[in-house]
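worker-3 :: picked ER membrane protein complex subunit 3
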Amino acid sequence: MAEDLVLDTAIRDWVLIPLSVVMVLIGILRYFVSKLMRSSQVPDPKIVKEGQVIVRARNLRAGANFISPKSFRARRVYFCNEENGLLHVPKGQAQNAQAQMFSDPNMAMDMMKKNLSMIIPQTLTFAWVNFFFSGFVAAKIPFPLTQRFRSMLQNGIDLSTVDVLPQFVWTEGFI
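worker-3 :: tokens ->
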């Protein structure tokens, strides 16, 4: 017969509920910190104009059935003419996305700020969990552990009663 695993009320009240509350609060704090660290960039008028031209061309294609064929051809020439069309880019002027990303140092700085705003709270959360909640049984595994894995998962706990199957995984040594 399989044993039913029951969650102890003390673990629920003193471990799971505080962890849940702290994780929600960290998520809210991370949101506001990333909002503060976000740099407000003024969009380049040329890029905005190109985006609006693309939207207009997409709308023309979507509404092609609702205008006369002559009007559609005239507008298509206006957008796609190889000499002076709005969507035509000469071969030498096209810049690939990676070169454009590396030409703007603010983009790299924004990526670094975003990564730091994720790494630092994660590290602090791990340290907090390791400090306050060490010694609780976190999981019950259905197979025996070798000595090497026992020392890693049951760090600081030398109990002879834990040698039998199934093994218990302790949260101490989590990091």
